């Protein structure tokens, strides 16, 4: 290998190692902010650079940032007026993400997504379903699971109801 090639390889390795060290420092700062419940630091870390890095850290941060704790989620049995539209959108979900789902897995995820969104709407009957909310709930479901997604999605929807200019 030429001297020029070796120098280029060294620069790439130094750059790669620097990124790994920076990521470790970021993870350490995230963990510190979680332990201190420092919401300002968590918001800053979530919205800059590589964000919250991975789903494990998101599972710890999102409940703090969205002001909820994991606890049982009870929903009303009274149907919501938008459940038909929710069904249509849920049935169109999980086609491209996550990759590699077979039909049975996709149908299972669609069913749980429907339950999450309907759970939110039944808990807050004054809410209306809007196009794209299924995408928000899909992300919450993939990271937080069903119970966490219902509570986090409810808090997001209630926030947007109070402050619609964020839409």
From TrEMBL:
An annotated GO cellular component: endoplasmic reticulum membrane
Gene3D superfamilies: 1.10.8.1310
One Pfam family, short name: RabGAP-TBC
GO terms assigned for molecular function: GTPase activator activity
Domain of life of the source: Eukaryota
Coiled-coil segments: none
Swiss-Prot/TrEMBL GO biological process terms: endoplasmic reticulum to Golgi vesicle-mediated transport
Family annotation (InterPro entries): Rab-GAP-TBC_dom, Rab-GAP_TBC_sf, TBC20/Gyp8-like
Keyword Cytoplasm among record annotations: no
Domain named Rab-GAP TBC: residues: 52-167
Keywords annotated in UniProt: GTPase activation
PANTHER family attached to this UniProt entry: RE60063P, TBC1 DOMAIN FAMILY MEMBER 20/GTPASE
Protein name: 13000_t:CDS:1
UniProt source species: Dentiscutata erythropus
